[in-house]
Specification:
By secondary structure, the chain is of the alpha/beta class. The protein contains 11 helices and 12 strands. It starts with 7 loop residues before the first helix and ends in a 19-residue tail after the last strand. The structure holds iron/sulfur cluster (SF4).
């Protein structure tokens, strides 16, 4: 019984099935797990009358919390490195906003998508994280550090749609109002454009969930170089999947465009991008490239970013410049997965 991978309803069902008791004890356990520090079954008042049940549940209960082994901060952004039970490391980024905290979760150790702009992509995939390991990252920030986590973005290590079963179960647990209570409308999944994953996500029909797509180029030739996934699913296929994606009224898709000096910043690229986005309900985030270690690419200057943004504005694209905080500690977009500095 791994409580980190269970919604309250699943825990209550487990209690009924295994102990012949349901809601009363399950509700107390779930609440204590997320709200009491330190957490121990025998200290939960509802279990006081039954030492036998308390012992059984204690023996059955699992919640392997990853061990935070390193924590570094810059510009208010904190990068946490956790050691998992098998010794592998995973990273989570905590981004303070004026009135709340956003956390950037990892869904895999490494990633097999091989995007050229990304440090994690250079590691290859070591393994998927379980739903419990994903939830544990949020648990650590909210319960151990006591921060008010409002938004969750799956933009850490890994391609969440390449580990969709575990990620969707983690989202169900994150949503649970008796636990971490982070609703779907405050969760963003970021994908490199894995079309079969987008289609599976569409089939779940979670219209409040936000979807972000790393586009980075709007012609197939260049995108296939920057993002090998484009050789599997070209831009036309991706566009069709996005068009079919069920969005709640008023919601938009987020498109991410990492601007790389001399690579995807030509006026032709702006024109192709504008044409590609035409008719899609999107908001474009323009992000200046953060060179990863031994990167073959360079960051654009602020003037070059502004020039590209202006071109998009002239094409009537709704574009926001996104500043990636935490570059110095390698916690910015595309930089997770290296050694802590
Ligand atoms: S950008 Fe995302 S999908 Fe691409 S390699 Fe990096 S972690 Fe994987």
């Amino acid at each position: 019984m791994n409580i980190l991978a269970m919604t309250y309803d699943q825990l209550a069902a487990h209690f009924r099935q295994h102990y012949g008791r349901g809601e009363f004890h399950a509700a107390a356990l779930y609440k204590a797990f997320y709200h009491s520090k330190p957490f121990e079954v025998k200290n939960i008042p509802e279990f006081a009358a039954s030492a036998q049940l308390s012992d059984q549940v204690s023996a059955d209960l699992q919640y392997d919390l990853p061990i935070p082994v390193h924590e570094i901060s810059e510009e208010g952004v904190t990068k946490l490195a956790f050691r998992l039970v098998d010794g592998l490391m995973v990273e989570t980024v905590v981004i303070p906003m004026p009135h709340h905290t956003t956390i950037c979760l990892s869904s895999q150790v490494g990633c097999r998508m091989g995007c050229r702009v990304c440090e994690t992509g250079q590691m290859g995939l070591l393994r998927n994280l379980s739903a419990a390991e994903i939830v544990a990252q949020a648990y650590d920030v909210k319960v151990r550090l006591g921060l008010e986590v409002r938004n969750v973005v799956f933009m850490g290590m890994g391609e969440p749609l390449d580990n969709l079963d575990q990620v969707t179960q983690a989202i169900r647990v994150l949503n649970d109002q008796r636990g971490l209570d982070i609703p779907q409308r405050r969760i963003t999944l970021s994908t490199c454009g894995l079309v079969e994953g987008i289609r599976r996500l569409s089939a779940l029909n979670w219209p409040q969930l936000k979807l972000a797509v790393s586009l980075n180029a709007a012609n197939d030739e260049l995108r296939a170089v920057l993002m090998p996934v484009n050789r599997r699913h070209n831009l036309a296929e991706l566009r069709q999947a996005l068009q079919d994606y069920p969005l709640a009224r008023g919601n938009v898709l987020f498109m991410e465009y990492v601007l790389i000096k001399g690579v995807n910043d030509h006026p032709d690229h702006a024109r192709q991008l504008a044409r590609y986005l035409e008719g899609l309900p999107v908001r474009l985030n323009l992000i200046a490239y953060n060179p990863r270690r031994q990167s073959p690419f360079e960051a654009p200057s602020a003037a070059e970013v502004e020039q590209f943004r202006q071109m998009l504005v002239e094409y009537r694209i709704f574009v926001r410049l996104r500043h990636s905080r935490g570059a110095g500690i390698r916690a910015a977009c595309g930089q997770l997965g290296g050694a802590m500095v």
